[in-house]
Amino acid sequence: MPGLIGDRLLVATHNRGKLEEIADLLGPFGVAVVGAAELGLPEPEET
pTM (2 decimals)? Predict the structure, then answer.
């Protein structure tokens, strides 16, 4: 699966609510969700 590194999935968002929702869905499968902010990635400009 693209973006899957071991048991972690990078979700390219800074939206905490979205990350929590995805983490709740994938948690039972042993997949931890990592957000863009946790990796120090900048927020994209709104256009």
Answer: 0.75
**Given the DSSP bridges, would you call strands 32-35 and 4-5 parallel, antiparallel or unpaired?**
unpaired
Domain ranges in the chain? 4-37
| 35-40-44 Cα angle (round to 5) | 75
pLDDT tens, residue by residue, 1-47: 565 556 889 999 999 999 999 999 999 888 999 999 999 999 888 88
Q: How far apart are CA 31 and CA 47, in angstroms?
A: 32
φ and ψ at residue 28, rounded to 5 degrees: -60, -15
Residue type, 35: G
